[in-house]
Amino acid sequence: MGKSFCNLLYHIVFSTKERRSWLAPEIRGRVHEYLGGGINGEGGIPLFINGIDDHVHVFAKLRQDKAVSDVIRNIKANSSGWIHRTFQDLAAFAWQEEFG
After folding, report:
1. 22 touches 54 (CB < 8 A)
2. Neighbours of 53 (CB within 10 A)
3. What is the DSSP string of the chain?
């Protein structure tokens, strides 16, 4: 029986709630690093994460046995909690519900 190979690469974009400028340059790198760890935690491989103060771009390889919407929901939920705990002045931080 032959082996099968799957290589699912995604460019995912999501923004802060109401496109607020919450991701200042001083914290942006740490947030991107945390998002990468979240992708690893979901069994994926973060290839590139970047963005500006109101949205992020994630280029990642994700597992074929997990729904993309579940992975993104988990990453956004976990990172929101981490941002609240890590940056006290961002207690109102939230991601927008949608992603592209």
Report:
1. yes
2. 14
3. --------EEEEEEEBGGG-----HHHHHHHHHHHHHHHHHTT-EEEEEEEETTEEEEEEE--TTS-HHHHHHHHHHHHHHHHHHH-GGGTT--B-S---
Tens of pLDDT, residues 62-97: 999 999 999 999 999 999 999 999 999 999 999 999
What's the mean pLDDT in 47-55? 97
Tokens of 50: 């970047």
